Amino acid sequence: MIDFIRESQEVIRQIPLSREWLYTIILIPSIILTKLVLLRLHFRQHPELEIDEKRRIVVMGRNITLMLCIFVLFLVWATQIQTFALSMVALAAAAVLALKELIMCLSGSLVRFANKQYSVGDYIEINHIRGRVIDINLLNTLVMQIGPNPLIGRLSGKTVSFPNSLLLSFPLYRDNILGSYVVHMFDIPVPIHLDSDAITPRLEAVLLEKCSPYIDEISAHLEAVQVQKLFITPPAQPSISRVPYDDKVYNLAVRFAAPVGLRVDIQQAVLDEFIRVQYRLLNP
């Protein structure tokens, strides 16, 4: 074995390339090839995976591979990097200022990874950008936009990319923190002269009809999440609250718990009923 290692080192010395370049040419493709083989084996062993789960695994594998390649390159070229850094201290300081945004993006990516703020398939909102995450890398996040109207929760078909540096400056809202269920809220502005007693009961009836099949299972899920993650979960019972706004309108604050895929349909059913009730009140 020792003789084999010595012969290998002798062969490497005879190749007309520096050791750093040779190790780079060998190790980087090996890492990438290993990632591809592992992904293919994993997907073959788990053919039942949903597309979101497959996408999440692909993105995670790509980011881990990228970080591993960077780490390997740093180890291989450590001596040259150290020599270069010592001779370019002033230039490095200027580069830090010039690459401030890049450093902030990498820092935001590190914060996201450390805190597990969101992953592929999650519904998020940050700095007025709302959508479903479809791709994440070290510099930015790509989401499929929801809207354009905030009361329309369906995917618009347009993608929006934002730099991960926003995670350091703006609050992040994540809808599906409770797994496959979500507690959803929205406001309905109502003209001040319309009697809320004639509107609220009709909306509550529609809301209860749509949500009642899921209340028990959602309540059990929320209790399990509360025990597992040790934080207080909201109640699953739907409700409508009346909130003063100004001298022209008041708001009906609608709140309900539902499966993630059904929240838009339930919201639309409540809005449809409100439009019908409002029309009858305005046109007696």
UniProtKB/TrEMBL annotation:
InterPro entries for the chain: LSM_dom_sf, MscS_beta-dom_sf, MscS_channel_2nd
GO molecular function, one term: mechanosensitive monoatomic ion channel activity
Cellular component GO terms, alphabetical: membrane
Residue span, Mechanosensitive ion channel MscS domain: 106-143
Transmembrane segments: 21-38, 59-78, 84-103
Superkingdom field: Bacteria
Record keywords: Membrane, Transmembrane, Transmembrane helix
Localization of this protein: Membrane
Pfam families the record matches: MS_channel_2nd
Protein name according to UniProt: Mechanosensitive ion channel family protein
